[in-house]
Amino acid sequence: MIFGASMKAKNEILWTEIETVQKCDWNYKLDGSEEEMEKLKNSVSRDNSVGVLPVRVVDFNGTRMFEVIDGNHRLQALQELGWKKVPIENFGEISKADAITIARRRNEEWFDSDPFKYAELLRDEVMGSYSLEELSRFMPETEDQMKAMIESLDFNFDDFGKDKAQTNDGVPMRHITLSTPEETAVEFEEDLKDFLKQYPDVEMK
Fold first, then answer.
1. Strand locations in 83-148, DSSP E?
2. How far apart are the C-alpha atoms of 82 and 188, rounded to whole Å?
3. pLDDT in tens for each of the 205 residues of the chain?
4. Please, is 182 exposed, middle or buried when counting C-beta atoms within 10 Å of its C-beta (0-12, 13-18, 19+)?
5. Directed axis angle between helix 72-81 and helix 34-47, to 10°?
6. What DSSP assignment string belongs to 141-183?
């Protein structure tokens, strides 16, 4: 293959030999663990798809190459799976500054998700076809995390404040402790705070 043959119009989506694509050394995302990479490879293999990797054209040791803007982990997964070609979106010879802003916009979640709606979909639509063990092999969450999501749907927030116990200072209170895996604790806490806004009498500490 003549590499120049892949140099199409800016932002054209095409397939190119995987050897012509390299990771970016400025990627700010952490390296994936062995377990995370195995999940990603399982996901790619299951769908036979990796999406499209946005790239820019760079000079690498005197050779023009495609540098991944967003997709270092996906490229690694494809390399380990033995793919020969990869789908790319070529942004052309853009600056590193532009590449970083594209990476940030492609990587970050723009809109908040509703964890309870996702849990309902998981319970009502997905669980009829898969077990949690199966899902944990190619989904981002672990088996325990998905189980906790589903179990959270059985928690009756409307009963908050009923059958109140008395504290030492005589103020009626009811204390409930919820726990979640450490790696999802921050996200879960923020989602719970948003959910509890509809219950003004509930105080979260």
1. 85-90
2. 37
3. 444 444 445 688 999 999 999 999 999 999 999 999 999 999 999 999 999 999 999 998 889 999 999 999 999 999 999 999 999 999 999 999 999 999 999 988 889 999 999 999 999 999 999 999 999 999 999 999 999 999 999 877 665 555 555 555 655 555 556 666 666 667 667 777 776 766 666 666 6
4. exposed
5. 70
6. S-HHHHHHHHHHTT--GGGTTTTPEE-TTS-EE--------GG
Residue 180's contacts (CB-CB under 8 Å, 6 or more residues apart) are: 148, 188
CB neighbours of residue 179 within 10 Å? 8
Name the residue with tokens 């499209």. Answer: 52
Give dist(CA 51, CA 15) in Å, integer.
11
Going from N- to C-terminal start, the domains of the chain cover 3-107, 115-196
Q: Does domain 3-107 match CATH 3.30.1490.20? A: no
Whether pTM > 0.85 for this model: the answer is no
DSSP secondary structure code for residue 22 in this structure: E
